[in-house]
What we know:
It is built from 4 helices and 7 strands. By secondary structure, it is α/β, with parallel strands linked by helices. Keywords: Elongation factor, Protein biosynthesis.
Amino acid sequence: xxxxFTKEESxxxxxxxxxxxxxxxxxxxxxxxxxxxxxxxxxxxxRAAYLAAQTVExxxxxxxQSAVPYRDLKYxxxxxxxxxxxxxxxxxxxxxxxxxxxxxxDDGRVQTYRIVGEDEADPKTGSISFVSPVASxxxxxxxxxxxxxxxxxxxxxAIG
Length: 160
């Protein structure tokens, strides 16, 4: 039956069910070993939320509660399928994927970030994506090297 012949709430619910897919980056899906574990845990959480939503009796509420977990599960399944685990760097001679790098900005601020995959990046907790402007400029550089990002110069002071 068309939603045109159902109560208004049902047509609103039907519109909510068609969430746009989460965008998938065009960059290679590089991940650390920890990043892969995070993706697996997120996929399991999304799967559990989706299965829990399927137990809701009211069909409109079931659809509403299923929409986000279903969309997330599709995204996470694709990210897991394409994940390329990159081992931790064997040396701290140059900045690489998985490196923890400390640098000093022109204004004297000292910052430390670990360079990780896009899905595991969280600048608030000290990790940035390898495709970010800062990380991409730092990759392949050594302690003492200076890189320019925007109008700032960053000097690498430590690699761990």
